[in-house]
Write a structure and sequence with these properties.
76% helix, 193 residues, mainly alpha
Length: 193
């Protein structure tokens, strides 16, 4: 019962659509109707400014981190539960019940999960993301490069194999959520930051 409750809390925490809420409250716009239509930090930055994009990035990461921290606190010796809650938070962001299952791409929420479970992987992925975006100004390339880096680092540094497997699963799901971006990258039509 406790595991199911934690997974549900993870999903519900992940499903809070901060990008939609903050752009509506602070700018009077629906981020789903402007820019790329995505609810995540990159599109919020395009539509409503970089400062608000940074706030959404932080909040989307925090909802993943806090859900996992709760699982760690309540069930400290259960890495499978921690991984399940992290996955649930990610899926909540990508498929939020409040938005008819149309959410974001999950990168920031995955980052928050990894900050708690595999901090070196999160740091390495974030640094690569920042470097790639600074060099090429394309967020999707940064997300994919950061994801590969996080998976490789997690394989070497994770305290539990479940955390390394979660990192790989999150990256596989990020590839899925970025399938449109990958097609645009292939056609050289991907939007720059």
């Amino acid at each position: 019962m406790r595991v199911a409750a934690l997974v549900l809390i993870g999903y519900l925490a992940g499903s809070v659509p901060f990008g939609v809420l903050l752009t509506r409250w602070l700018r009077g716009v629906d981020v789903r109707r402007d820019g790329s239509g995505n609810i995540g930090a990159t599109n919020v930055a395009r539509v409503a400014g970089k400062k608000l994009g940074a706030v959404v990035l932080l909040l989307d990461a925090l909802k993943g981190a806090l859900a996992v921290l709760l699982a760690l606190w309540l069930m400290p010796g259960a890495p499978r539960v921690h991984a399940a809650v992290g996955l649930a938070a990610f899926l909540g962001h990508v498929y939020p019940v409040w938005l008819k299952l149309h959410g974001g791409k999950g990168v920031a929420t995955a980052l928050g999960v990894l900050v708690v479970l595999v901090p070196l992987a999160a740091l390495a992925g974030a640094l690569i993301y920042a470097g790639v975006v600074a060099a090429w100004r394309v967020s999707s390339i940064g997300s994919l490069a950061g994801g590969v880096t996080a998976v490789l680092t997690a394989a070497l540094t994770a305290r539990a194999p479940e955390y390394a497997w979660l990192s790989a699963l999150l990256f596989a799901l990020i590839l899925w959520t970025h399938r449109g971006n990958i097609q645009r990258l292939w056609r050289h039509t991907e939007r720059r930051f």
